[in-house]
Amino acid sequence: MLPVYAIATNTTSSLGIDVKAHWNAVQQGKSGIAYHDDASLSAMPFWGAKIDASQWQYIQAQTRTSTAISPFEQLAIFAGKQALNACNQDIAPEDTLVVLSTTKGNIEWLGMYDDERLSLHKSADIIAEALGINKHKPVVVSHACVSGVLALVYAMRRLQQGTHKHAIVIGCDRFSRFVLSGFQSFQAVADEACKPFDASRKGINLGECGAAIVLTTQPDFGALARLHAGGSSNDANHISGPSRTGEELGLAINTALQQAGITSEDIDMISAHGTATLYNDEMEAKAFNLCGLEDKPVHSFKGYTGHTLGAAGVLESVMIIESLQQQQLIPSLGFKELGVPVPLNVTTEAASADIAYVLKTASGFGGCNATAIWGRV
User: Fold this and answer.
1) What would the pLDDT profile of 84-93 be if each residue is shown by its tens digit?
2) Which candidate, 200, 182, 282, places its Cα nearest to that of 239?
3) What predicted TM-score, i.e. pTM, was given to this entire model?
């Protein structure tokens, strides 16, 4: 099959508006999660990761269009434009597919506009047109919290089929009252900065983000990393509770390894879903053990940006690509003491390492799991 490469990226979150700001946060151990008392979002104070007002002003100034667009669409357009501007060659619209990953889209407009304006396919059309890549119908991937990883794997497979030469995958979700209240009803939101895999973890923090990765089958466009393979599975366990054994995520991991033509021994780093909820972290740890990955350096990026839902898999893949470029492990913020019942090698320092292959995992409501294998070029 045709090899698929990442050639440009962007991520915009509470940590800043570019990849450099995010990598600096990794080096400094800086989190974008903070205490908020905002009655427009919650009747009670909460911990979360929100893009600040000055950043929003800049994003809005860079994404003005002749038609009214939502903050969600502005954030997605901004991330996409920044990634496209980072390409060392222009990519032709007729050769390019737009893939949008999101879970909630314009949910904050619910009750204000008709269903058609709120639909994800409408947002995808608006985003593609604003980017000038609307020769082909954009594709929406909305599959709970695995959306970002699935969107990247889907784009990879379309490129391997030869239907397009390039794809831009955009992951985006906004911080909204609707989403926050939903997780609060589950009693899943921590009253402090989250601590993935830690013994004292209390749950998630929500975040917001727009992230984009430009993929291509043309290596002369300046490859940053290679997307080798991906897999997916379902727990068939519970609408919100993950598998108790980790076997199903393990199946998706092994599928990706087999497709990439490597074994667990070849993996040098794992970027876990790592939500800091009791059952998700336990399930992931068990899956890594079942696949012989318990000694591999693992981190969750949720301690930096919170859980960014449909953007998470794209954001965290951007950071994988940067880690491959820098040849450095990413520390897992908030971790002090192992809080899962099986061995796990959680990274606590930004140490240099020889990183050739990285495993990305994601899991979500409905029991969905997705994996991807990234590699250096």
Assistant:
1) 999 999 999 9
2) 182
3) 0.98
